[in-house]
Amino acid sequence: MKTNRTGIWIPREIECLEDLSVSEKYLLSEIRSLTLAKGCFASNAYFAKLLGKQPDTISRMISKLKKRNYISQLSFDGRRRELTYSLGNFSQAVVEEKPSAPIQKSKADSEVSAVPFVPSTTKVHNISTKSPLDIWKEFLQWTNQLAPTTRIRIQSASGPESLAKQDRIFWETYTVRLRPMFGS
């Protein structure tokens, strides 16, 4: 893979992730950079050479990043995969469900007997009910901590739908923070 690499910048949102090693943060930053450019189609061998690691180590690191929802795999055709930076995108509502006990058949007399009724313990955690306009205004306030050029570019947008691809990541990361985490 030919590249015009000039180095890597580790964004603050990645730098602050305490559950990742320095190598994992470096890998995540590289995946983010490639995603923002033209998509991340880099192989484990490419990342291994870049980080001075073995390809199987890179594979384990990528699996960990996927498990924690920092990245996701968009496609894989047997030879080539596409990864995308997502930094924890979750579904809109988190559902926890404990199934009720199944009906069991007695082996002794071949009669069907029901296991005692267990009430459903399904819980749904809803997201914030703030209006999209309020969330956008809060996001614009939050952008004051970003670099001036990034902040100005984002604040000149009329809404999230008009953000450039590289700025949309900030919006997606910000809105993920508003969603409840599992079990909360």
| Name given to the CATH homologous superfamily of the domain at 12-85 | Winged helix-like DNA-binding domain superfamily/Winged helix DNA-binding domain
Net shape: elongated
- CATH fold title of the domain at 12-85: Arc Repressor Mutant, subunit A
The N- and C-terminal alpha carbons lie at a distance of 43 Å
Helix segment count? 7
What is the level 1 CATH name of the domain at 12-85? Mainly Alpha
Write down the Rg.
Answer: 22 Å
How many extended strands?
6
The class by helix and strand makeup works out as alpha+beta
**Helix and strand run:** HHHHEEEEEEHHH
Stretches where pLDDT falls below 50 for ≥5 residues?
89-101, 109-115
Mean pLDDT: 75
The level of helicity is 40-55%
Please give the order of strands in the largest beta sheet: 1-2
Q: How is the main sheet built?
A: 2 strands, antiparallel
Estimate the strand proportion. 5-15%
CATH architecture field of the domain at 12-85: Orthogonal Bundle
Keywords:
WH_DNA-bd_sf; alpha+beta; 184 residues; elongated; Arc Repressor Mutant, subunit A
Q: Can you give a write-up of this model?
A:
- With 184 residues, the chain is α+β, with helices and mostly antiparallel strands.
- Among the domains are: 12-85, Arc Repressor Mutant, subunit A (Orthogonal Bundle); 127-178, no CATH class.
- Helix content is 40%, strand content 11%.
- It has helices at 12-15, 22-37, 44-51, 55-67, 132-142, 148-155, 165-178, and strands at residues 71-76, 81-85, 94-96, 104-105, 112-113, 123-125.
- It has a two-stranded antiparallel sheet.
- The longest helix has 16 residues, at 22-37.
- This is Helix-turn-helix domain-containing protein.
- It holds the Pfam family HTH_36.
